[in-house]
Amino acid sequence: SRGGPPYPCNKRRPGSGCAARDGMDRQHAVLGTSESCVAAYPGDWAVALLAFDARLDLLGPGGPRTIPLSALHREPGDTPQHEHTLADGELIVRIRVPVSATARGSAFHKVRDRESFAFALASAAVAVRLGRRGTVQDCRIALGGLATRPWRAHEAEQTLLGEELTERSALLAGEAALAGARPGTHNGFKVALGIRTVADALRAAGRRAAS
Asked: Residues 17-53: pLDDT tens digits?
C-alpha cells in the first residue's frame, strides 16, 4: 500500500501470504485458484491462441524445442511465483497456429467494467464448425479473466458436439465451462458473467459459421 508496507503477495514475495483471499477479490480468478493465489490471468492474446491449439517454438541454452501453448502457463498451486514453464534463458521464437476450418466461425467476447479498462472481468475465445444439419461438428472454448491462466474448457466443448447450437445449448456449455468455479467473497458474480459471456460468444460464432 502507498506509504506503508506492501500487501502480502505470494507471487511477488513467496511465503508472504495472499491479501486477496480474505480481502477485496472482485477482479480475481474463480478457476484454477489455490490457497496461495487467486490472481486472474489478465491477457487476451494467449486465450485466443489457446482456443486454436497454438504451438510455441522455443530456443534456449539446451537447444530448440516445441511445446503446445497449453503447456506454457502454470496454475499457481503452492508456488505462484512460477508462472510459466520456460527454462532459464529460454525464449519464444515462433508461434504456430494450425490452419483450421473451424476458425471461420469464431468470436472473441470481452467484458470489462469500462471500455477504457484493459483487463477483462470475463472473456471467451470460441469457434464452432457446423455440419449440414446445423449440428456442431467441432467446438473450441477458451476463457480469460476468470482463471489463473488461459483456460481451455474441454468439457464444455464436449457438451456441444453433435448438438444444435441454440440459446439453451450455448448456456449449458457456459455452465459446463464454469462448473469448477470457486468464487471468493466479492467475485461470485463472475460465475454468471462467465456463463453468459461464453454463451453470447458461441451464438455469435454460430452465426458466422452458418453464413
From this structure: 999 988 899 999 999 999 999 999 989 999 999 999 9
- Please indicate, yes or no, if residue 175 is contained in any of the structural domains: yes
Q: How many domains does the chain have?
A: 2
151 SS3 class: strand
Single pTM value for the model: 0.93
Q: Is residue 1 assigned to a domain?
A: no
Q: Based on the fold, state whether residues 23 and 117 are members of the same structural domain.
A: yes
Buried b (16+ CB within 10 A) or exposed e, 105-140: bbbbbbbeeeeeeebbbbbbbbbbbbeeeeebbbbb
57 three-class SS: strand
Q: Which residues form the domain of 22?
A: 7-53+100-211
Burial of 168 (0-12, 13-18, 19+ CB in 10 A): exposed
Q: Are residues 65 and 143 in the same domain?
A: no
Query: Which residues fall within 8 angstroms of residue 134, CB to CB, at 6 or more apart?
Result: 164, 165, 210
